[in-house]
Specification:
single chain, 617 residues, alpha+beta, Multidrug efflux transporter AcrB transmembrane fold, five-stranded antiparallel β-sheet, four-stranded antiparallel β-sheet, 26% strand, transport
Length: 617
């Protein structure tokens, strides 16, 4: 019989709409202003911390809706944002610097919905408010570090091969090795070419000296830049986690830039301090053979550097770096046995092995801990980017008493606050190359709320206009289309809430509004085709059947081409473009389901298989 659906198709439609509604439902319950308290690594958020925070708020007369401790984080909910802002200052002061206190919005989703993993839509920066940074990686500094490492590697390799050289220096975007004899240079060239196939070697002779110049090939240059960008993205994500930001966005833009969006953050100074800091550590041996007086006068040995400690005293260190902060996997601040601040360091396996091997052979020699930081200057590079100044300071000099392993400590730090900040930066990781903030935008929470309200009003007005038109023009069939339209919106919001990492932005709302019109387009095609069949003398049941059947190919063609466009937008776009593309893709698939399957189920249920002389269309 025409226009009769089997039971499983009705159950499928009901199941899809029910699941979508359940996952969209949390958006009806709103969010509570909240305070999120987390401890820096090594500091646990205990029930005593919960008690202390509650007592602090009670004494100030601030009403708390709830306070819960889970996953080493404390979440305190308030009735309004005024209490939230007052509570943040009081709790942060009471708990001290060992804890990170951040403003948040906690979903007021009932526990039974949370049990199935349902939660509200994640709102983007333009809807929630916060800070937007566009950062540019200093690729020249990243390449400079690689060249310095080339110099160190060449020195070590040539010494091990007993190939005598006059000097190794970084020069002209590469490394130059100078020999006194051509035969030795040729032996070194053969050896180094085999050991470093990604480098391009050339001969540079000058008078009685024979030079060997090495530069990175195109593929190696590309790998270095890609590594610097990806590592910086990873490290910035770690630092964002240390800030305690909910639902942050960190992604690349182009070949050298990183976009960072921190919803809910209004303290831009603190965010910039942590995200842009390039502090790291280096461990180097003290050059005991150097004359400090001569070094202070400018006569520094060729394989050494002159630095100064925190008291301004000169310290001559060997250029060879034993270990850098890249191998640090954990760092926590604390006090030593004399109640002085210290930082406890844990290394990864390669770093621990390197430190153990080096200290085993150098017991009794002084080793310095060097704090390195890159600070932006007023000078500009040729491409217009800001130059960085490299500041180095010797934190402490300690004699190696025994073989060190993967865990040790550094002392000589000025204050406990400084130790905590250094531990945070080292724990999050040292940036592979300095970054500069080339664009900064702050969106206030009131503006974000206004964007939400405006977007919702646009969607509501658009739906009302469509619903009114369809009801007037297609009568009862128009009501069927309107029901499908409502189901379409529910499915979009439900799927967006289910998909991990999906974020609703203002362009995303525009995508929903667009799919509302596209969903009605499909119904218009079907209904007009049914009218044509009726005018052609077909029976009611034949008209319904042929209307859906003949309109299917047209609807599919139109939606598939739009879907391809949305996929391309998602693949090549960034930021707002991706947000628009995501909602457009979900909306197209939902509209095809509701227009073709959903309305057909309703039409078949109401009018299918019945002896009718006319249709209310």
């Amino acid at each position: 019989m025409l226009n009769r659906y089997p039971l499983w198709k009705y159950l499928m439609v009901i199941c899809v709409i029910t699941i979508s509604f359940l996952y969209a439902a949390p958006n009806l319950f709103g969010e509570d202003p909240a305070l999120q308290v987390s401890g820096s690594r090594g500091t646990q958020v205990t029930p005593e911390v919960l008690t202390q925070a509650q007592q602090t708020l009670d004494q100030a007369g601030i009403e708390v809706l709830s306070a819960a401790l889970a996953d080493n984080q404390l979440l305190i909910r308030f009735r309004n944002t005024d209490d939230q802002l007052r509570g943040k200052d009081l709790v942060a002061e009471a708990l001290g610097e060992n804890y990170i206190t951040a403003l948040n919005l906690a979903p007021a989703t009932p526990s039974w919905l949370q049990a199935i993993g349902a939660g509200p839509l994640k709102l983007g920066l333009d809807l929630r408010g916060g800070v937007h940074f566009l950062m540019e990686v200093d690729m020249e500094e990243a390449l400079s570090r690689v060249r310095e490492q080339m110099v160190q590697d060449f020195r070590t390799d040539l010494r091990e091969q007993r190939l005598r050289y006059s000097g190794v220096v970084a020069q002209d975007q590469g490394a130059l090795v100078v020999f006194r004899e051509a035969d030795v240079r040729n032996q070194a060239l053969t050896y180094l070419r085999g050991r470093y196939p990604d480098l391009v070697f050339s001969e540079r002779d000058s008078g009685d000296s024979f030079g060997l110049f090495a530069v990175m090939g195109e593929q190696r240059l590309k790998e270095v830049k890609e590594y610097a960008l990806q590592q910086n993205i990873t490290i910035i994500r770690n630092r964002v986690n240390e800030l305690g930001v909910a639902e942050p966005l960190v992604q690349r833009q182009g070949a050298e830039r990183i976009v960072v969006q921190l919803p809910g953050i209004q303290d831009t100074a603190r965010a910039k301090e942590i995200l842009g800091a390039t502090a790291t550590l280096e461990f180097r041996l003290v050059d005991e053979s150097a004359d400090l007086t001569a070094a202070a006068a400018g006569r520094v040995p060729p394989n050494s550097d002159l630095l100064r400690d925190r008291e301004g005293r000169p310290v001559v260190l060997q250029k060879r770096i034993i270990l850098t902060g890249e191998h640090i996997v954990d760092a926590s601040s604390g006090m030593d046995e004399f109640s002085r601040p210290q930082v406890n360091i844990s290394l990864d396996a390669p770093g621990g092995s390197r430190m153990a091997d080096f200290t085993k052979d150098n017991v009794g020699r002084p080793m310095a801990t060097v704090f390195t930081e890159y600070k932006p200057t007023d000078e500009l590079n040729e491409d217009g980017s800001r130059k960085f100044r490299k500041d180095q300071e010797v934190i402490n000099v300690a004699t190696i008493q025994s073989r060190l392993g993967r865990s040790f400590r550094i002392t000589g730090i000025g204050s406990m606050a400084e130790a905590q900040n250094l531990a945070l930066l080292l724990r999050a990781g040292a940036l592979i190359a300095p970054i500069q903030i080339v664009e900064e935008r702050t969106i206030g929470p009131s503006l974000g709320q206004q964007n939400v309200e405006n977007g919702l009003m646009a969607m509501i007005y658009g739906m009302l206009a469509v619903v009114l038109f369809m009801t007037i023009y297609y009568r009862k069939f128009g009501l069927v289309a309107n029901a499908a339209l409502l189901a379409n919106v529910v499915i979009i919001i439900g799927v967006m809430s289910m998909v991990p990492g999906a974020t609703m932005t203002l362009p995303g709302i525009a995508g929903i509004v667009l799919t509302i019109g596209m969903s009605v387009d499909a119904n218009v095609l079907i209904f007009e085709r049914i009218r044509e069949e009726l005018r052609g003398g077909r029976s009611v049941q034949q008209a319904i059947h042929l209307g859906y059947e003949k309109a299917l190919s047209t609807i599919a063609d139109a939606n598939i081409t739009t879907l391809i466009t949305a996929v391309i937008l998602f693949a090549v776009g960034t930021g707002p473009v991706k947000g628009f593309a995501v909602t457009l893709m979900i909306g197209i698939l939902a509209s095809m389901f509701t227009a073709i399957v959903g309305t057909r189920a309703l039409v078949n249920l109401i009018w299918g298989g019945k002896r009718l002389s006319k249709l209310p269309i």
